[in-house]
């Protein structure tokens, strides 16, 4: 896939660390599968992975975590 940000790179499958912040809660998800641009480093998550990441982040916020570090497991 051609990168929609830099328009020069192509993507390859790998893993990224996703950091999300809402209110006073920081959620870090490690080893998240993504397609990463080889030129600029922008990453793209699939729809299903995005839904899981957002659900895990929502769960952390709801339980009152200030900092949550999660190793992503599909």
Please state the CA-atom Rg, rounded to the nearest Å.
14 Å
Overall structural domain count: 1
Distance, first to last CA: 23 Å
Average pLDDT metric: 96
Could you spell the SSE succession in H and E letters?
A: EEEHE
Main pleated-sheet profile: 4 strands, mixed
Organism: Microcystis aeruginosa NIES-44
Protein name: Type II toxin-antitoxin system MqsA family antitoxin
State the gist of this model.
This protein is an alpha+beta fold and about 70 residues long. It has one helix and four strands.
Q: Any overview of this molecule?
A:
The chain has 74 residues and is an alpha+beta fold. The protein has one domain (11-71): Ubiquitin-like (UB roll) (Roll). Helices cover 22% and strands 43% of the residues. Strands 1, 2, 3 and 4 form a four-stranded mixed sheet that branches. A hairpin with a 5-residue loop joins strand 2 and strand 3. The longest helix is centred in the C-terminal third of the chain and has 16 residues, at 47-62. The model has no long low-confidence stretch (mean pLDDT 96). It comes from Microcystis aeruginosa NIES-44. This is Type II toxin-antitoxin system MqsA family antitoxin.
Write the layout of secondary structure elements.
Layout: E1 11-22, E2 25-37, E3 43-44, H1 47-62, E4 67-71
Parallel strand pairs: 2-4
Antiparallel strand pairs: 1-2, 2-3
Protein name: Type II toxin-antitoxin system MqsA family antitoxin
InterPro entries: Znf_MqsA-type
List keywords for this structure.
Ubiquitin-like (UB roll); single chain; 4 strands; 1 helix; elongated; 74 residues; alpha+beta; Type II toxin-antitoxin system MqsA family antitoxin
């Amino acid at each position: 896939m051609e990168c929609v940000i830099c328009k020069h790179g192509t993507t390859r499958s790998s893993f990224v660390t996703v950091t999300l912040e809402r209110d006073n809660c920081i959620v870090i998800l490690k080893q998240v599968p993504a397609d990463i641009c080889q030129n600029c480093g922008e990453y793209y998550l699939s729809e299903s992975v995005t839904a899981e990441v957002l659900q895990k982040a929502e769960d952390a916020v709801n339980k009152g975590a200030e900092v949550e570090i999660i190793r992503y497991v599909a």
